[in-house]
Protein: Winged helix DNA-binding protein
Amino acid sequence: MDAGINKWENLREEMKNSLQFKLGSVTKVVFKKMNAQLISEGIPVLAEQLPILMVVYFQVNAMTQQDIANVLQKDKAGIQRSVQTLHKDGFLKIESDMEDKRKNMVSLTPSGKFVCERIQTLAIAFNNQIMEHFSEEERKTFIGFLDRVLTVIEK
Structure:
């Protein structure tokens, strides 16, 4: 019986220290803190919606919802729900494509642009708050490791 318990404990420890678990935990805490910061700043956007806003913000021309889904590597249905919410909140404009009426083109409204600029400032400050606990060499090593993980996974 002890061997079975030890095997279970070892497996549990291995899972707790796995890349998936650690990255998931960090992401969850970062989003929680970022959401709290957004609320305290009076910005009615969730951290989970930020990637959509930022993708549209950094595009020169309007994009389709499928384009956004492709860039973020997310399913179109989830993107569509978030785009609709951000549209209702006045941050995104949705217009029919002139050439293909089946497609919706997504762009930022003036308030969407303003919010993106505020969010960038908050995100940079948040990043700096975390990274100030690491030396320059540790930061470079850490970012290098994350880049290498991405490269390995994408192969």
Observations:
- The chain has a mean pLDDT of 90.
